[in-house]
Amino acid sequence: MKTRFARTSSALAVSIVVVAGPWSSAHVASLTSPVAGAYSLLSYSVRTEGQQQVPERLGRTAMLPWLYLLEDLTYEWGSARGTYTVRGDALVLSGAYGPWGPGKILPDRRLFFDFARWDAAGGLQLIKLVFSYRGSLDAYPPPSRRWSGRDGAVRRSG
Length: 158
Known about the structure:
This protein is α+β, with helices and mostly antiparallel strands.
């Protein structure tokens, strides 16, 4: 029931934008998804059961793509695409990252995922990821909004 109400109110907000005139896309994003924006991986650690946990250095996360949570409840992370849902302070990604389970949305808009998976050698890996909010999608557009196709021209955002 709560999900249905949230989607109804989001659809209503979009209708008001069309009828009432132009609002900034940042304002529309706040009405359709409370977490829409650009996120970079702040830190991660992987521990295999039976081994000492050694967190990866923060410098290595700079090479990883940003996570983009779009206003329409879809996400982009590198070449992966999918949908996401927000339930209270929980964020759930679909697709390849569905097995991560719900992530926690912290008050400062950081995202925290803590999950386990089996590695190729059959060991249990305990993984923790922390994403930091970098800004709005207007300020940091996702790749799908930056490139127009074969010619490599950059699309204008906003």
